[in-house]
């Protein structure tokens, strides 16, 4: 087992951009208002578990349905591209209904551990060592937990315009990630 600080930082930054918990603060605030309360611990544990399970079993699940990791990564790069375009241009391509149990659905899945995150995990697995990806997941989920616990304070700190700037900045980072994933899995 070899830990590599460079890989840990890279995976952490990629996951930070794709999870985009700072950009999701307005959504989290809206969900909290609808539900009255969000169980931050529960949402964090469920999202972390989903990501780690998919990191190990995702490739096998793909093989069962006849897909390879590169095809999934290319499809995922397109999903990430669409998510990034939403962030940068202020579009809404994906619509989610908020059920009564918002801590699990839609918060833990698909907001935190959604299709873009799962695709990114499989793509990262083709480039980095698994233990470094797990550390990147844990670093990000610690940050996610902190944000979920402090959404109201962060809303006041950043203000609406500050949150908008963060969302657009991470959108541009996601665009670059999507292009990199597409290029590395197509050989272009």
TrEMBL record:
It is a multi-pass membrane protein. InterPro entries: Multi_antbiot-R_MarC (IPR002771). This is UPF0056 membrane protein. Keywords: Cell membrane, Membrane, Transmembrane, Transmembrane helix. It is found in: Cell membrane. One of its GO terms (cellular component) is plasma membrane. PANTHER family: UPF0056 MEMBRANE PROTEIN YHCE. The chain crosses the membrane at residues 12-31, 43-66, 72-94, 101-124, 130-148, 169-186. Belongs to the UPF0056 (MarC) family. Pfam families: MarC.
